[in-house]
Design a protein that fits this description.
Strand content: under 5%
Number of strands: 4
Distance between the termini: 40 Å
Helix content: 55-70%
Strand order of the largest sheet: 1-2-3-4
Shape: elongated
Amino acid sequence: MRRGEEHRPACAARWREQAERDGWTQWQLVHAIHTCCGVSLLKAQRLARGWKLADAVREFHALAECDPGLEPLNLTENQLNHWENSDDRPRARTIDRLCLLYRTRPDRLGLANDYSEESDGDDTRTVPATGSSFVLVRDTRRLQLESGSDVQPDALAGDDARRSLDHEEDDVQRRQLLRGILTAGVGLSPQILEAIAGIRMRMEDTLNAPSASPTALDHWELMAERHGCGYQGLTPLQMLSDVVLDFAEVQQMLSHRQPVEHRKRLCHVAAQLAGITAIILHDLGDHREAHAWFRTARLAAEEPGDRVLRAWLVAREAMVPLNFGAPQAALKMATQARALAGATPSAALALACAVESRARALLGQKSEAKAALRRAETVFTQLPDSARVDNWYGYPERKHFVHASHALTLVGATREAYSAQDNALRLASPTTRMSTALIRIDRASCMVKTGHLTEGFQSAGQVLLGLPQEFRTPLVLSRARGLVNAVPERDRNHRAVREYRDILALGTQLA
């Protein structure tokens, strides 16, 4: 339905009066408002109760506050308004909570379909109306009396109702109305005063909007921590969906005024979630969007003023050019991250040193690469246990060996590289599929560098064939192609190399 076809809230108010007078069921009232007023079922549920958006949001949050067994869920007026006026749907847990709020079923919110054949005895098509009956004609959005005449309920209120500006009227309509009145050069008529008052009340609603509760803040910080644990068996696309949806909810909370400390905590969470989104986009090979999300993450991180968080974001972003052919840019960003992190040992500082090591190795700066790797190891030994957690925010021992494996492989220190690979594989969990694949490709590269061409390419081929399609990301394929590029020209026609090229081509087509 188009917003222009909706009736004013005064029309819904008249249906509430008739429903109370004639003893309708709640669903009959909802359906009457939905059919007559041209609003969605979700919005009709709210209007049937006489609630404004702020009322519905307040009641939604009160459900969890009154019942400790309910998980707190975030809902803002903007979100609810969007769902009421678009085809987008909330997630399943939010739909369930909306059903609880309105004491109804998902299909009666317009958020699901009812395929049942039996009737529950609740006739939604015909309800009594002031001495006669009317039929709710879904498509025409009007009332058809038994006499055959049509009634447009919104017309019953007269010109005053049609001119009234409700709190929830679209901002574009408000601007058009005000500009039209001002252009006409009229004085301070009741109409223009009403429009101005409506805008002022919208601002009061915004300023008086409830801030995020401590429970909600704890919840979102926990969610950011959970997402930071990595894929944990999820595919990159599955995790991308989860993280972006949670990021959107945090963004909605930040759109309302919050106490300074609450806003800082929310911005910290937003920076973490945006950074994780960028990491996943990097793994999926979308460099442009990865950089854009890192930029958003850095903006969010400025408000809480956490230098370590900002350093972590820059160090993580440095891995985008590092893994996709721009080591000089990666080195510059890694140096910036080191400066931001300062001298105090932190996961961000260790990561910056490790990324610097890999960038210098790609640039052929062997001694400098080894020196940077030693700095990373020194910082690692000084880290507190809280900074060694095995997630994207920390710098655990496994991650150090992953970075060391790549840097040492690139500089040709194969014996040390084999040792780093053994340790990385020993510490890997079954869910770190992409990381494990990259380590095994490094090992295959070491085999090739030491003259074991057949064994190296066969090993790398087995890695690609054994990796599920959804984890055969551009990051993995980029590292796999690098193995071929490192082979001397004289060996390009070796049988093992040709067979590996075929496997690589197949993997590229399936990814």
